[in-house]
Amino acid sequence: MDIEQLMPHVEALIFASDRPLTQIEVTELIGQALETNIEADRIATCLEAILEKYEADYYPFQLKETGGGYQFLTKKTFHKTVLQLNGDKHIKKLSTAAMETLSIIAYKQPITKSEIEYIRGVSADYSIQKLLEKELIVISGRNEDMVGKPLIYNTSKNFMDYLGINSATQLPQIKDITDVQIVMPTSAEEATPVDPQGMILVSEHTELKQAS
């Protein structure tokens, strides 16, 4: 079977799946369906061709490598239209506190609850519980090096699928989405203005004192 004949089988399989399929899974499933041995590199060629095919503007969806596999996803232009049908069931319903907690986990993972609370300055118990319920984060183990061996949290496969990314490394870089610069607080001594002659300027109505 040539590539043109094989491509529709790959498309049909991915289209019918409710989760991303890996290249290995696609190869095995199509081989079973066609009752023949399918070479992995031929499936790879099909996937590349399908990726290119659905990049065309007149398709409202595209093939994306996401969640460790391949899945058909609606293009960004049509997200708002599709949301009218399904609703923004995860992100939109999150509280500000939960969104902050999710953002911290996404960019600092793997991370413990105490580390999240140190960054936010408040308890994260409720937010973490809600994120676990919505399956946007997962418990990925324990930090064996910390006292009490606390649980470690990571974003979930569902979170990756929702954003249409394949790993946390594909998240927007903070420097690309904000112009805010982190400035460390200045000590009182450093904040005291000094003139070029090394004199500390105390005030307009007091004499200058020689800087030590």
CATH class of the largest domain: Mainly Alpha
Query: Looking at the structure, what is the overall shape?
Result: elongated
Strand content: 5-15%
How many helices does DSSP assign? 10
Number of domains: 2
**In the CATH classification, which architecture of the largest domain applies?**
Orthogonal Bundle
Strand order of the largest sheet: 3-5-4
Low-confidence stretches: 180-188, 190-194, 198-212
CATH topology of the largest domain: Arc Repressor Mutant, subunit A
Q: Mean pLDDT, rounded to whole units?
A: 80
What's the total number of strands? 7
Structural class: alpha+beta
Radius of gyration: 27 Å
Encode the helix/strand succession as letters: HHHEEHHEHHEEHHHEE
Portion of residues within helices: 40-55%
Could you state the CATH homologous superfamily of the largest domain?
Winged helix-like DNA-binding domain superfamily/Winged helix DNA-binding domain
How widely separated are the two ends?
86 Å
What does this structure look like?
A 3-stranded antiparallel sheet has the order 3-5-4. A two-stranded antiparallel ribbon has the order 1-2. The chain contains 10 helices and 7 strands. It has 2 domains: 77 residues, Arc Repressor Mutant, subunit A (Orthogonal Bundle), CATH 1.10.10; 82 residues, Winged helix-like DNA-binding domain superfamily/Winged helix DNA-binding domain (Arc Repressor Mutant, subunit A), CATH 1.10.10.10. The chain is of the alpha+beta class and 212 residues long. α1 crosses α3 and α2 crosses α3.
